[in-house]
Structure formats: C-alpha cells, structure tokens
Amino acid sequence: MATITLDGIAHAYDGSPHGADLQDMRRYALKPINHVWQNGRAYALLGPSGCGKTTLLNIISGLVIPSDGRLLFDEQDVTRLPTERRNIAQVFQFPVIYDTMTVAENLAFPLRNRGVEKQAIARRVDEIAGLLDLRPVLNRRARGLTADAKQKISLGRGLVRADVSAVLFDEPLTVIDPALKWELRSKLKAVHQALDMLMIYVTHDQVEAMTFADQVVVMNDGRVLQIGTPADLFERPAHSFVGYFIGSPGMNFLPATIAGRTAHVGDVRFDLSASYPQTPNSAAVQLGFRPDYATVLDRSAGTGIPVTLRRIEDLGRRRLARVALGAYELVATLPPEVELSGDTALLQVAPGHLHVYVDDHRIEGQSVEGQPLEGQPA
Amino acid sequence: MNDRPINNRAWLFVLPVLVFVLFSSLLPMMTVVNYSFQDTMGQNNFFWNGIAWFQNLLDPSTDIGGRFGNALLRNLIFSLVVLFIEVPLGIAVAICIPRHGWKVGATLVMIALPLLIPWNVVGTIWQIFARADIGLLGAALTRMGIHYNDTQDPTSAWATIVVMDVWHWTGMVALLAYAGLKSIPDAFYQAARIDGAGRWSVFRNIELPKLQKVLVIAVLLRFMESFMIYTEPATVTGGGPGEATSFLSLDLVKIALGQVDLGNAAALSLVYNLITLSICWVFFTVMTQLDQRKDL
Asked: Which chain A residues touch B if contact means CB-CB below 8 Å?
C-alpha cells in the first residue's frame, strides 16, 4: 500500500522527447497533472471517451511510460519501472481469464507467480472468493462461466494481492448486465472498505463514479478539471464542463455581465449571493445554475423572471420544464404542486446556487456580511 | 413442426453441383470400386472376384499385404515426425514474427514463399540441393566429413525428405498460428504482466489455449497432406534406396501403373482413402468434443 504522486505527468502518444516544449499542448493526450492519490482511499477518474483517463491509468500501472513528469510510489520514483516490478493490480474493461485454469487457480495466479506460500494463497483466495460470491464455482473451469462471472474473476485477481500499491479499474462493469451492475458496484465499495486499499476507478458513467469514490477526478480533453467529493462536483463545479457533465440534466449556462452583486443577462437581472470583482472585457463570462435549484412557477406567483414555456418532461419521480429566456434555452424543475397556465411562467433561482464562470472557470465571490458564502442551502 | 415453406424446385439449384461432384469424384471413385471387386485374364474381360483383393491386401503374409503394411508404417512414422517438428516449430516462428510495421509484410512474404512453389519443383530443387557430388547441401555435408548420400543411405534419404517437408510446410503452420496470435487482445498480455507471469507462463496459459482452434486445423491439414505425400519423394528419392522411402502413394503408383495390377491397386487406394478419412474424423471429433466440455 502506498501513496501515489503524479509530479507533472504528461503524455503524447507520438513520443515527444523528454522535456519537450510543453507549450504545444495539442499533441498531448494527457496534459501535465500534479496530484497525490492518498493511501487507502477510493478515487474515480470520470470523463467522456477519449479524455485521457485510460492513458493516465496505464501510466500508473506502467503499461504506458509518460513522455514527461515523474511518478512516485511513496518516495520511490517508478516512472520508468516495468509493470511487473511496480506491485500494482489492474482490472480491464473486458474479462481476462486464463481459459485452462479453474476459478481458484485463476485467483491464485498472481500470488503463485510471486512465490507466495501455498497455505497463504489458499486462505487469501478463499477470502476474495467469499467477498465476490465466487465460492460455489471455485473448482469449475473458468472458460465455461458467464461474462459476469468472468469479470468477477478478473476483479478477484486484481484484489487478491494484499500488498499492492493500488488497484486500478478500467471501466470494469462495461460488460456486466445492468441489473448486476448495481450489485457489483456496491460489492466493490464493500470490498474497498473491507480491504483498505488505494483504488482508482476509471469510468464515463457519473453514477458509477459517484457511488464508488470518495474523490472524483473529472477529466476532459486530457486535462484534469476538478478533483472533489461527489457533493463538491454537484454543488460547486469548478469548470463549466464539470457543470455540464455532472448531473442529469447538466447545468444551465447564460452569457452574462457581472456588476457587484448583480448579473445581467440581456435586460434580465439575477441577484447573486456574493459580490464579484470586475471582469476583463475580453473574457467570456457565464452565469451557471443547476436545474435542480431552479424552479418554474405559474405567472400568478408574483416574483420571478418571466420565461416562455417550451415543454414539460415528466420523468415520473420529478418534472422538468424546458423554458426559453430570450434566445437561451434553460431547464428547470417544475414542483409537483404547480400547475402552469398559458405558455409564460416565472423562473426562480436560489441566489446561493448561482455560479459565475470566467473563461469556463468558476470564480469565487466575496462574501457579503450576514450572508452564507455560496452554495449552502439556506 | 416446421412452418418453413417447402419448394422442391430448389433442388434445381443444387443440381449443377451434384453433376460436377458426380463427374469429378463419384464416377472415378466408382471405377476404382468396380476394379476392386473384379479380376481379369486380359482382353478386357472382367469377372467377379468378391473381397479377395481386400483379403490379400490386409493379410501381412502375402506379398502385397507385406508391402502394404510396411508402406503404411512408413507413412505413419513420416506423418508423426513431420507433425512433431512442424507444429512446434511453426508456433515458435509465429511468436517471433513482428506484430507491427513494415517488417510484418516482409516476414510473412518470406515465410510464404516455399508454399508458392509447385510440388514437383520443390522436389527438383531438393534433389539437386541434396546431391552428394554437386548439391550445395550434399557436397557441403560430404566435405565436412559427414557420411551423407540420399540415393544410397536410407537415413540420409529420410532426413532429406523430412527436412524438405519441414522447409516446405512449416510456413503454413506459422501463418495459421500467427493469425491466431494476432487475434488475442492486448489486455491478456497486459493482465499477464500485471499478474507477474513469465514468458513461458504467458505462452502456456494464454497463447497456447487461444491457439487451440487454429492448431486443430493446422494439424489436420498437415496430417492429410503428409499422409498422402507423393510428388516430392517421387522426385527426390523415387522411393529408394531400396524400399526405404516407398510411401503408400508411391507403392500405389508402382502397382497400378508399373505392374498394371488393377485389382490390388484399387483395393489399396480404397483402404488408403478410408484410413485417411477415419484418422481425420476421429481427430477432429475428439478435439471439438474436448472444446465443448466446459466443466472440465
């Protein structure tokens, strides 16, 4: 077990020479990253396909050698160390099993290769098989099993070594039946609590990331955009992409001009809970808020910003209203008790849940006396 | 039971194939069957001879039976030797073939070259190559003081034919195995590195099991071809020295065309055919059955 440090790790697949000009960022599949993965915690690497998350994972496991930066396991520099000497476990997207071996032999394989004593192997294999419900099939040959069971074997082989620095998961639930996904996800969470290992889990599914991890790392286009708890990502997205990618549906964004505690979107005024400094004219300023914190009310309600109702989506558990504010489309929550008449309505947004983005990055306002700073529920 | 429409006119589509098969194999085959049950005193007069030819052939105490038994043994030994060399060697070659870049094409073409040479040309090449007086191989071995003469010494003759077959056909096993290796996803190799498996373990636990299907095909093709080998030994050794390299096919040609002993030749070719068929069938059935037994 170890703490893993990424010290300016970056990678270009066309093989940039070490210490090459970092200015030319477009060539980099992974832009420079500095981050420390703490021992014993569960992280998720979340981002759309092709964002560089698997590259980052393969750099940690040593399947890819980064073109720049240093990788430290505790104090040891392992940047150029081959995979087999790194003491790391990795589970891949598709099940990898050794066809000719039984399930038990599959689970024992990483231990046997490292010369672990027989009885210790048997004990550990039994423990892992218990955690993953593989005990009934331990003596079956692995290749005859279902895809789910095969992936459980892959997971088991990842978890079977107790002394690994980290266990890496590369979208391990892709091939799993949706009904079983829930079960395996919570199983993994339980395994993490039982085994106390550093686990890094790559996924493009936000629900998977949020349920598995203590800390979620959101990536896009080779860059880490935010690292935070699931609540952080939801309440205070640091980058407009995080706002858009996390949450369903994603955040609303409106181009705005900010003057102190007021945001102007065209002729419409939004009150902010904090005061913002003057932004440079060249910068693109946006006002962002989540559909979950915006409500649409009937125009008889009195206060609110007038909007045009486009359509209502009934999701069963809640209703969403798609509305237009001038030329901009927005999504907001339609409370269950509200009945709308006509096609104009009023939009109310809690001031604490309005965020200001300058060139896609969220900026913090100065707190106004007697007011909660930001994002806190009243 | 079956709601699919039945249209007997569909047989018309099968007809051309049936006619083709009839003329290309069934009718010639039936002539052979015909000869195998008849005898002649000449003048093209045939009479019924029952199963006497077959009885003769399968009785080792008769002249033809003894020849048949010896040739069959030689065939089996040759096929086994060739399989035991070519299959492992082919796999080894396939593992060494590069997986990326321009070298792939270059290597594959080089390996495939012997496969593109007509069989009698292969025989001629080796016949000259092996000559003890002027052949590159034969003369070089003789100069090195090794006793080698493929026209006089049975061991030399066998070695020449085996090496020739290995040279000719290992490439095919290598190409098949290469195709099988290419289809193994990278994740298996990556997982093996992470699991700490050594090179031998990767071969034993990943590559060999994944190659099983192509190897069944390789072994079948190589067995059939080597068991029916004719052209190359006919050109290189002509079955000699003595009877040392007289395989079934060579003997058959001698009996049928040299001695014009049609009854014996017909019986021999039918039995020969049946042996090839049944060995292939048993091998194929056993291998596919093993593959389907998932609980093992």
From this structure: 61, 63, 82-84, 88-90, 92-94, 96, 98-101, 109-110, 113-114, 140-141, 143-144, 154, 157
For the domain B63-292, what is the CATH code? Answer: 1.10.3720.10
Contact A114 B196 (CB under 8 A): yes
A50: region left, alpha or beta (phi > 0 left; psi from -120 to 50 alpha): left
Domain extents in chain B: 63-292
Residues of B with CB under 8 A from a CB of A: 185, 187-188, 190-191, 193-198, 201, 205-206, 209-210, 294-296
Backbone angles phi, psi at A320, to 5 degrees: -115, 140
DSSP class of A102? B
Taking CB atoms and an 8 Å limit, are B187 and A114 in contact across chains?
Answer: no
pLDDT computed for residue B231 by the predictor: 87
Task: State the CATH class of domain A248-366.
Answer: mainly beta
Which chain A positions have a beta carbon within 8 Å of B294's beta carbon? Answer: 141, 143-144
* Model confidence pLDDT, tens digit, residues A262-314: 888 888 888 888 888 777 777 788 888 898 888 888 877 778 888 888 888 88
* A/B interface, count of CB pairs below 8 Å: 55
Going from the C-alpha of A253 to that of each of A157, A244, A257, A355, B40, the distances in angstroms are: 45, 9, 13, 9, 101
Q: Do A113 and B201 touch (CB under 8 A)?
A: yes
pLDDT of A371 higher than 60:
no
Please provide residue A321's backbone torsions phi and psi, each rounded to the nearest 5 degrees: -110, 125
| Distance from C-alpha of A28 to C-alpha of A8, rounded to nearest angstrom | 13
In this predicted complex, what is the ipTM?
Answer: 0.76
Contact A154 B198 (CB under 8 A): no
Collect all residues of chain B within an 8 Å Cβ-Cβ radius of residue A65. Answer: none
Residue keyed to tokens 């915690």: A41
Amino acid present at A40? G
Contact A90 B191 (CB under 8 A): yes
How many angstroms separate the CA atoms of B14 and B27, rounded? 18
Q: Decide if A83 and B198 are in contact by the 8 Å CB cutoff.
A: no
CATH number attached to the domain at A4-244: 3.40.50.300
Task: Tell me which H or E stretch contains A216.
Answer: strand A215-220
Contacts 24+ apart (CB under 8 A), A142-145: A142/A97, A142/A98, A142/A99, A142/A101, A142/A102, A142/A103, A142/A106, A143/A97, A143/A99, A143/A100, A143/B294, A144/B294, A144/B295, A145/A103
Closest CB to B194 among A89, A93, A98: A89
3-class secondary-structure state, position B296: coil
Both tokens of residue B197? 């498996």
**What is the pLDDT at residue A17?**
54
Give how far Cα B62 sits from Cα of A66, B52, B93, B252, Å.
77, 12, 46, 16
State whether residue B69 is helix, strand or coil. Answer: helix
A170: nearest CA partner in chain B: B187
Q: Taking CB atoms and an 8 Å limit, are A143 and B196 in contact across chains?
A: no
Strand order in the sheet with A4-11: A30-37, A4-11, A68-73, A76-77
* pLDDT tens-digit readout, A324-353: 888 888 898 888 888 877 788 888 888 888
DSSP 8-state secondary structure symbol assigned to residue A135 = G
For the stretch B179-190, pLDDT in tens is 999 999 888 998
List the structure tokens of B238: 């002509």
- What residue of B is the nearest CA neighbor of A140? B295
